[in-house]
Design a protein that fits this description.
By secondary structure, this protein is of the alpha/beta class. 30% of the residues lie in helices and 26% in strands. It has 6 helices and 11 strands. A hairpin with a 4-residue loop joins strand 1 and strand 2. The longest helix is centred in the C-terminal third of the chain and has 18 residues. The two termini are 25 Å apart.
Length: 208
């Protein structure tokens, strides 16, 4: 079983962000008002930001330990991160976007088939729909063979009808990976359909 263990403190403008939780092979949903510390939590787990105190363990490997001055670089953490705006390269077609961080060709072929995006490979981001961009962004992350998946409002740019079509399929794909997954969403329905467990964050603290 995969496991992510998080215990850290990060000083923010108006409060301290104190996070202490574990995630196994499940989808953990983080909810809370804007500015409560959700995205900062993902950024610290991924290595894009540093905490003042604490540690992060992934499958018994130390990723961060402030006391021992351990800080594994982003590229070495085996953590996949799908951003809210998808962050696709506009000057690259879908194939080049996905292969930008590829681990091996076999994984690439499997992911392309899994997400059903073979027909998009020669298209550019400006030429595909929001739902297709979401699939491409997920594919680009999954070809790195991550041990943890972080998702920051992955459906926020999509209209309601498209969201409803994608929820079940998206959950099946993520659950099939059998890795710890953390999802940020403000949408109660989304949280109920996609999540196995919910943590509510209020001013940097877990309230439930």
């Amino acid at each position: 079983m995969s496991r992510l263990i998080v215990d850290f403190t990060k000083k923010l403008n108006h409060f301290n962000l104190d996070m202490n939780f574990e995630v196994d092979d499940e989808i953990l949903v983080l909810q809370g008002n804007s500015g409560s510390g959700k995205t900062t939590t993902l950024n610290i787990i991924s290595g894009l930001m540093k905490s003042e105190r604490g540690y992060i363990l992934l499958n018994n490997k130390v990723v961060v330990d402030t006391e021992k001055k351990v800080f594994v670089k982003v590229r070495d953490r085996k953590i996949g991160y799908v951003f809210q705006d998808f962050a696709l390269f506009p000057n690259m077609n879908v194939e080049k976007n996905i292969k930008f961080s590829i681990e091996n060709e076999e994984i690439y072929k499997e992911i392309i088939e899994l997400l059903k995006i073979e027909h998009l490979l020669k298209s550019y981001p400006s030429e595909i729909s929001g739902g297709e961009k979401q699939r491409v962004a997920l594919a680009r992350t999954l070809v790195t063979n991550p041990e943890v998946l972080l998702l920051d409002e992955p459906f926020s740019a999509l209209d309601s009808n498209l969201k409803n079509e994608l929820y079940d399929e998206f959950r099946n794909i993520i659950k099939g990976l059998n890795i710890p997954t953390i999802l940020i969403t403000h949408n109660e329905k989304e949280a109920e359909i996609l999540g196995d467990r919910l943590l509510h964050i209020e001013k940097g603290e877990i309230r439930n």
